[in-house]
Design brief:
By secondary structure, the protein is of the alpha+beta class. β1 and β2 form a beta hairpin.
Length: 144
C-alpha cells in the first residue's frame, strides 16, 4: 500500500541551475510504509558536473552549501556542528564520506582558543570513524 500523500510532502525546484528534489515524511505511519525514518530528504542532482560544464563546480558548491544551511536549525545560531564522514576509505564506492571530511575546515578549536578573531565563526568538528570491519566498533557507537 502506498503512503497517504497527506503524510508525505514532495517538491522539485532548481538551485543554481541544479535540480533539487525534496521529500518530507511527516508521520510515523508514512515512515513505516515507505521504509525510511520521518524527516526531510534533499537530493541534489549534479548532472552539470558529469557533463563538465564550465562553471558547474562553483555552482554545485553554492547549491550544496545552501541546502546544508537549510538543514541547520535556525534557532541554533552559533551551535556547534559535527560533520561525520561515514564509509570505508579503502573501498572506492564507499569512500565519499571520509573523503568529504578531509575537506571540512574544523573550526571548533579556533573559536574556543582565539575568540577575539574567530567569535563570528561557527564551531565545526569533523570525524571519519571508519567502519566496523576496520575498527571493530559500530560507527553509531563512535558517533554517539
Amino acid at each position: 500500500m502506498a503512503a497517504d500523500m497527506r503524510q508525505v510532502r514532495q517538491a522539485d525546484r532548481t538551485l543554481d541551475g541544479f535540480s533539487v528534489n525534496e521529500v518530507e515524511i511527516l508521520t510515523d505511519r508514512a515512515a513505516q510504509e515507505i521504509g525510511k525514518p520521518r524527516g526531510r530528504y534533499l537530493t541534489l542532482s549534479l548532472d552539470a558536473l558529469i557533463r563538465r560544464e564550465e562553471d558547474a563546480f562553483p555552482r554545485a558548491c553554492r547549491a550544496l552549501s545552501a541546502l546544508l544551511r537549510e538543514l541547520l536549525p535556525e534557532t541554533a545560531g552559533s551551535a556547534p556542528i559535527l560533520v561525520t564522514g561515514l564509509g570505508n576509505f579503502m573501498i572506492t564506492p564507499d569512500a565519499i564520506g571520509p573523503q568529504a571530511v578531509d575537506h571540512v575546515i574544523a573550526t571548533r578549536h579556533l573559536v574556543e582558543q582565539v575568540p577575539d578573531v574567530f567569535s563570528s565563526w561557527r564551531p565545526v568538528s569533523a570525524l571519519a570513524p571508519g567502519v566496523l570491519g576496520q575498527t571493530g566498533v559500530e560507527t553509531g557507537e563512535v558517533v554517539c
